[in-house]
């Protein structure tokens, strides 16, 4: 009896189970080597379902990729005694270092406000800021500034209509990762929505890692900082000396 | 050719960095300035995080100064004795400067004070040098021999020491004080301090211009090596890939610059340095005075 009741609640609570996501990635590891200059990841998949395709409303797909969270300080300049000075500062407690949202149609059409709030899908929702001091009334403008500046360097992307969906079953999109990329696990989420409601959700991770020389140098600089510092100076001295020696050879 | 920098975590064009290093290297060899006051803002401009730019720049200056000093040692235009005295002062000053810097950071607005420091010092030094060298050039043109002030208050102080290469017999107090104040400013402004030291050596200590350049470079090597080590062990912000690219350009540039410097007359050298110093000063002043296109800036939490 209890088992039956449990099954019933499960069925009511998760109508989403009717449509499942089967996902593929062109690669689940991005290697940052010396010649790394950005990368493109192909995210594709299919919708698995037991029942026939519900006709209305149409199926929409949203794909988000989020880099590791960081804390930022956003400062604002103001004119004081004729010169431009940083005055107010707001700390953004948690914001992804990279964030991309790709949708099959306009984000506003494929996701309702409440669902956005619950799943933190749109760029402003992915940022959390609670640390604004009382003296600053327009704290939201600092968050807007963060989004504006990060969008300019392609680190925040809103790509509406870039997910193509065929026959409400197959979907695919490409996410452009910029050259300035932080190491870490990039959380990738796929949402299926109908009429603004999330009907199914799938999560996976893309691993962004430094490899080879990049990895070796980075680790050395953190784990053996003194040696790294001495090595840097030694290289500098050696380079200075060899340049001088080469030039002397030319003159002789 | 794009290259990914492991510590800065950005991808930049390798040839751009080689070119920047080269240009700054030429200036470094010509004038005996490390070039940090030019290179650091340039690195900010191409998108290197400020903390990484400042620390890596110190490392690059070690290379170009070393390369420059070797060229100067060959033609015996380094006053090692004077350099050592300046260095002792410089290290004391750098330590004091770090204390001052941290105090200012606690007060906030350290960025502004650094910039104001730049504008004031570059403006005053550049202006004075420009006027002085213009007068000197005018005098040589009119046929009069440029009179070097042989005796001022500096020569009345105790603890005298003979500096043969510079042809001076003066008290060690003024060079020590010059070293200390340059060290303080260098630590606050994040540069080698050559652009302050060179004029101070010429005008305060009365050293001959030809010796000044090599001696300044000699002192800068040690101060910047010390700074590099400090940054590498405390902030982990020295990017060696960035440094290598900059210094390949830099050391070649320094050799070229030293040779150009020898060909130029002392007054011409000084007036060029003055113009360059004034240009950087003007740029920084404009940044403070004009409304920026983006009022907001994003930084890592807690400054660094």
UniProtKB/TrEMBL annotation, chain A:
Q: What is this protein called?
A: TIGR02186 family protein
Query: Where does this protein come from, organism-wise?
Result: Roseobacter sinensis
Q: What domain of life?
A: Bacteria
UniProt entry tagged with the keyword Transmembrane helix: yes
- Pfam family for this entry, one: Alph_Pro_TM
Record lineage: Bacteria, Pseudomonadati, Pseudomonadota, Alphaproteobacteria, Rhodobacterales
Span-the-membrane segments of this chain are: 225-250
In the UniProt record, the signal sequence range is 1-18
Q: What keywords appear on the UniProt entry?
A: Membrane, Signal, Transmembrane, Transmembrane helix
From TrEMBL, chain B:
| InterPro entries in alphabetical order | TM_pro_TauE-like, TSUP/Inactive_protease-like
Q: Locate the coiled-coil region(s) and give their ranges.
A: none
**Which key words are in the record?**
Cell membrane, Membrane, Transmembrane, Transmembrane helix
Q: Where are the transmembrane segments?
A: 12-39, 85-106, 112-131, 176-204, 211-230, 236-257, 269-286
Q: What is the protein's major site of localization? A: membrane
How would you describe this protein's topology in the membrane?
Multi-pass membrane protein
Location in the cell: Cell membrane; Membrane
Q: Does the keyword DNA damage apply?
A: no
Q: Which family does it belong to?
A: Belongs to the 4-toluene sulfonate uptake permease (TSUP) (TC 2.A.102) family.
- The molecule here is called Probable membrane transporter protein
Q: Which organism is it from?
A: Roseobacter sinensis
> Which taxonomic lineage does the organism of this UniProt entry have?
Bacteria, Pseudomonadati, Pseudomonadota, Alphaproteobacteria, Rhodobacterales
């Amino acid at each position: 009896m209890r088992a039956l009741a449990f099954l019933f609640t499960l069925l009511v609570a998760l109508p989403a189970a009717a449509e499942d996501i089967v996902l593929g990635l062109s690669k689940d590891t991005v290697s940052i080597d010396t010649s790394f200059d950005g990368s493109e990841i192909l995210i594709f998949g299919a919708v698995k379902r037991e029942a026939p395709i519900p006709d209305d409303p149409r199926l929409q797909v949203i794909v988000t990729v989020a880099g590791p969270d960081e804390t930022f300080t956003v400062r604002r300049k103001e004119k004081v005694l004729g010169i431009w000075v940083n005055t107010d500062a707001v700390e953004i407690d948690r914001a992804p270092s990279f964030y991309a949202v790709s949708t099959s149609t306009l984000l506003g059409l494929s996701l309702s406000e409440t669902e956005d709030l619950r799943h933190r899908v749109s760029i402003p929702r992915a940022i959390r800021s609670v640390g604004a001091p009382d003296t600053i009334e327009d704290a939201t403008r600092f968050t807007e500034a963060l989004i504006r500046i990060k969008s300019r360097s392609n680190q925040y992307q809103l790509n509406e209509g870039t997910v193509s969906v065929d026959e409400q079953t197959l979907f695919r999109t490409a996410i452009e990762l910029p050259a300035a990329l932080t190491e870490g696990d990039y959380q990738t989420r796929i949402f299926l929505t109908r009429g603004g409601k999330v009907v199914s959700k799938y999560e996976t991770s893309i691993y962004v890692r430094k490899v080879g020389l990049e990895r070796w140098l980075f680790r050395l600089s953190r784990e053996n900082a003194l040696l790294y510092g001495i090595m840097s100076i030694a290289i500098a001295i050696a380079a200075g000396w060899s340049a001088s020696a080469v030039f002397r050879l030319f003159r002789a | 050719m794009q290259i990914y920098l492991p510590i800065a975590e950005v991808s930049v064009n390798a040839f751009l960095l080689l070119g920047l290093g080269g240009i700054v290297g030429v200036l470094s060899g010509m004038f005996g300035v490390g070039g940090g006051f030019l290179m650091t803002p340039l690195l900010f401009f191409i998108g290197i995080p400020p903390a990484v730019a400042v620390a890596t720049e110190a490392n690059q200056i070690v290379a170009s100064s070393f390369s420059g000093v070797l060229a100067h040692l060959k033609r015996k235009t380094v006053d090692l004795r004077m350099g050592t005295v300046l260095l002792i002062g410089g290290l004391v000053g750098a330590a004091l400067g770090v204390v001052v810097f941290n105090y200012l950071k606690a007060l906030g607005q350290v960025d502004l004070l650094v910039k104001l420091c730049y504008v004031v010092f570059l403006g005053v030094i550049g202006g004075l040098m420009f006027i002085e060298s213009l007068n000197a050039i005018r005098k040589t043109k009119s046929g009069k021999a440029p009179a070097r002030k042989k005796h001022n208050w500096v020569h009345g102080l105790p603890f005298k020491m003979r500096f043969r290469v510079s042809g001076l017999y003066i008290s060690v107090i003024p060079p020590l004080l010059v070293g200390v104040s340059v060290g303080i400013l260098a630590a606050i402004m994040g540069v080698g301090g050559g652009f302050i030291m060179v004029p101070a050596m010429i005008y305060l200590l009365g050293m001959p211009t030809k010796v000044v350049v090599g001696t300044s470079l000699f002192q800068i090597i040690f101060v910047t090596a010390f700074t590099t080590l400090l940054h590498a062990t405390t902030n982990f912000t020295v990017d060696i890939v960035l440094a290598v690219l900059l210094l390949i350009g830099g050391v070649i540039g320094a050799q070229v610059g030293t040779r150009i410097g020898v060909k130029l007359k002392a007054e011409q050298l000084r007036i060029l340095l003055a113009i360059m110093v004034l240009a950087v000063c003007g740029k920084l002043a404009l940044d403070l005075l004009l409304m920026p296109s983006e009022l907001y800036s994003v930084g890592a939490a807690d400054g660094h």
